[in-house]
Amino acid sequence: MTEEVQIVSASREIAAPPEAIFELIADPAQQPAWDGNDNLTEVVRGDRVRAVGDVFSMRVTNGKVRDNHVVAFEEGSLIAWRPASEGKDPAGHEWRWEIEPLPGGGSRVTHTYDWTELTDESRMERARATGEAQLQASLDRLAKVVQSAI
Predict the structure, then answer these.
(1) Does residue 2 lie within any of the structural domains?
(2) Burial class (CB in 10 A: 0-12, 13-18, 19+), 106
(3) 26-46 burial string, b = 16+ CB within 10 Å, else e?
(4) Rounded CA gap, 56 and 43, in Å?
(5) What are phi and psi of 18, to 5 degrees?
(6) How do residues 49-103 score in pLDDT, each as one tens digit?
(7) What is the tens place of the pLDDT at every residue in 24-48?
(8) Does residue 80 fall inside a structural domain?
(9) What is the Cα–Cα distance from 74 to 95, expressed in whole angstroms?
(10) CDD domains recorded for this chain (predicted)?
């Protein structure tokens, strides 16, 4: 039996400064424009993320609202959140973004999905279907959005 991969990552270089990229990720209102899972429709609550403990809520394509609890934050370089059903505790999976400046300009962006602690059976099928291709799609869309803005 093959062991199930529960931590998936993708990386790419983006020809933009870390601050410009981070601004798109940390502002929930911008996320539907670059979401490679085609799952987000709009921000419901929450402003630009500024610290661990912040919560922002997004409406997803099925009409439900997800509260995203920020669990890691370093301005300009790292942000991670754990989604939860509206008003509930996080379900045990995490979206993480790491941005590092490259010599001569540009940035390397790494996007990680970790569902090692996911216990909600209703989310398992989607978690299993989230692979490197979906993460890469978000990175590619993010690059397109940020590069058209600078």
Answers:
(1) no
(2) middle
(3) bebebbbebbbbebbeebeeb
(4) 8
(5) -50, -40
(6) 999 999 999 999 999 999 999 999 999 999 999 999 999 999 999 999 999 999 9
(7) 999 999 999 999 888 899 999 999 9
(8) yes
(9) 15
(10) SRPBCC_7
